[in-house]
Write a structure and sequence with these properties.
Elements: E1 2-6, H1 13-22, E2 26-31, E3 43-46, H2 52-59, E4 66-69, H3 75-85, E5 92-95, H4 122-141, E6 145-150, E7 152-154, H5 169-175, E8 180-183, E9 189-194, H6 195-203, E10 215-218, E11 223-225, H7 226-237, E12 243-246, H8 248-254, H9 259-266, H10 275-280, H11 290-302, H12 312-327
Parallel strand pairs: 1-2, 1-4, 2-3, 4-5, 5-6, 6-10, 7-9, 8-12
Antiparallel strand pairs: 9-11
Length: 328
């Protein structure tokens, strides 16, 4: 099976790429070569997918069994892909986001039929528009699209609400005994998925004709409270959790830059029904609990001092929120 990943070396896609190669897939990676991530066994095509004309020339002689775009974010990106890959691929997989689902939710368990609506986050509304463009292309011309919606998926990122992701800031604070912010009372439910687990479900969709025309989310079945998540992070860091609970409303008034990620995503419960991916990929199950996965993540950060970035601006923002809250 000849597969093109547009991107393929990111937080989620690196694990998918490595698994694909191990499964014997003839994998090509189209990217600008800026990320220093090696995928042994994959073939690299250097190009900028956002420069449609130059990429058209680069890919002109290729046809594909599957094309996956990991870095399409706005409708123009998928419209360009339609021009590039019509008649050139048997399946096109668009990486959307579980943040497209209705916020706030009207039902406690999310399925693929949950309405798509996010009035808080432009990123999510753009993904919804991308989906609409592709669904229309499928309905009107049979363009072979599969839509995949990852939720909060981590590997080389620290999946907390404030002070993590590509930063080491939250870990540094924990190790120093400083206060860390948990939004709300920490009891809302959330789902975290390790990228290696995601890859097992995702790769079962490559070339899977039953998935064409469908939206599918892929997540772990482990559901945790945010208190449990932060406790697991602190335990992995070998630190005592010194948490302060502050409402999302207060946080975003003091730090408006946090509004998208909180109100548009993490302030709401996220519990997923994974029946669909399990029916399409028999045997799929997520097996890496967060308590183990976060240890792997911290080991990756701490293997290279350059990865352990402590951002003074993030620290200042967190300190400002805490100081303002405690002065009220």
């Amino acid at each position: 099976m000849k597969v093109l990943f547009i991107g393929g070396t990111g937080n989620i896609s690196t694990s998918v790429s490595k698994l694909a190669v191990s499964q014997g897939i003839d994998l090509y990676l189209l990217n600008r070569g800026e990320r220093k991530v090696e995928i042994p066994g994959a073939k690299t095509i250097t190009g900028n997918i956002y420069d449609t004309e130059s990429v058209k020339e680069i890919l002109n002689d290729h046809t594909w069994d599957v094309v996956v775009n990991w870095i399409a974010f706005i409708p123009e990106h998928v419209k360009n892909d339609l021009e590039l890959f019509r008649g050139k691929t048997r399946q096109y997989i668009f990486i959307s986001s579980a943040s497209v689902y209705q916020k706030p939710p009207s039902f406690p368990v999310i399925t693929e039929s949950t309405p798509l609506s996010n009035p808080f986050w432009q990123y999510s509304r753009d993904k919804i528009e991308c989906e609409e463009v592709l669904v229309k292309a499928y309905q009107q011309e049979g363009f072979p699209v599969t839509i995949v919606r990852p939720s909060h998926t981590y590997d080389t990122t620290i999946p907390v609400a404030i002070g993590g992701w590509t930063e080491y800031t939250i870990i540094d604070r924990m190790k120093k005994g400083q206060k860390v912010i948990i939004h709300g009372d920490g009891t809302s439910l959330w789902t975290l998925t390790h990228a290696e687990d995601f890859a097992k479900g995702f790769n079962g969709l490559l070339g899977n004709q039953r998935s064409i025309g469908h939206p599918i989310h892929i997540t772990s079945d482990e559901v945790l409270t945010w208190n449990q998540i932060y406790e697991s992070v602190a335990n992995a860091a070998g630190a005592e959790l010194n948490a302060i609970h502050i409402t999302s409303d207060f946080i975003t008034k003091v730090a408006p830059g946090e509004k998208d990620g909180l109100w548009g995503d993490k302030s709401h419960c996220a519990v997923f029904d994974n029946s669909k991916i399990k029916s399409l990929v028999p045997g799929f199950t997520a097996t890496i609990p967060f308590s183990e996965g976060i240890k792997r993540t911290l080991a990756w950060f701490e293997a290279d001092q350059n990865r352990m970035v402590v951002n003074p601006k993030t620290n200042a923002m967190m300190d400002k929120i805490i100081a303002t809250y405690e002065s009220v």
